């Protein structure tokens, strides 16, 4: 019975291409101002979108979310939105592949970013996002494997095991020099 259901599902998916298609990466808006250095940013820039030109020549659209909990200015990738759901390991690799200064956010940084969930358009940041924050787990066999995901819309914190069945949205933050 399960085999028939899986074969039927595979036939539907291959006919429609629903799972095979990945959304195309968003192109950065070339008309945006270039991301200034940290010393040139102020609270009036919070929520503003910028174009960031990396040393590698890659351009990335980011939005400034202000100082993170550690006090350092950070920007969040705008080209990951709307994102596809990924595993924790895929999200980590995705952020590191962006280049120097890019990383996964902490849960506190996502709390700061939650004020931009509807900017520049409604439902701009939907759902739950992976964080590098480790979930408290006192009687776990592998405590470092439990990660926290944060739902930007509701403020709920999700405790998830670092396994392929758990997929949340990826988002990367950039430490502005």
Describe the structure.
The chain contains 3 helices and 8 strands, in the order H-E-E-E-H-E-H-E-E-E-E. It has helices at about 1-15, 90-95, 105-115, and strands at about 50-55, 60-65, 75, 100-105, 130-135, 145-150, 155-160, 175. The longest helix has 15 residues, at about 1-15. About 25% of the residues are buried.
Outline of the structure:
The chain is α+β, with helices and mostly antiparallel strands and 177 residues long. The chain is built from three helices and eight strands; from the N terminus they run H-E-E-E-H-E-H-E-E-E-E. The strands form two sheets. It has a five-stranded antiparallel β-sheet with strand order 1-2-3-8-4. Strands 5-6-7 form a three-stranded antiparallel β-sheet.
Features:
five-stranded antiparallel sheet, 24% strand, alpha+beta, Mannose-Binding Protein A, Chain A, disordered N terminus, 177 residues, 3 helices
């Amino acid at each position: 019975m399960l085999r028939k259901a899986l074969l039927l599902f595979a036939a539907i998916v291959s006919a429609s291409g629903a799972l095979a298609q990945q959304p195309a990466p968003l192109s950065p808006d070339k008309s945006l101002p270039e991301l200034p250095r940290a010393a040139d940013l102020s609270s009036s820039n919070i929520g503003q979108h910028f174009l960031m030109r990396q040393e590698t020549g890659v351009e990335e659209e980011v939005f400034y979310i202000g100082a993170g909990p550690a006090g350092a200015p950070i920007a969040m990738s705008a080209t990951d939105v709307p994102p596809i759901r990924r595993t924790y390991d895929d999200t980590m690799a995705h952020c590191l592949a962006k280049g120097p200064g890019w990383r996964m956010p902490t849960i506190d940084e996502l709390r700061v970013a939650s004020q931009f969930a509807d900017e520049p358009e409604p439902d701009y940041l939907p759902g739950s996002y992976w964080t590098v924050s480790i979930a408290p787990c006192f009687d776990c066999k592998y405590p470092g494997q439990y990660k926290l995901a944060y739902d930007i819309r509701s403020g709920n914190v999700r405790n998830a095991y670092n396994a392929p069945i758990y997929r949340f949205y990826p988002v990367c933050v950039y430490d502005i020099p």
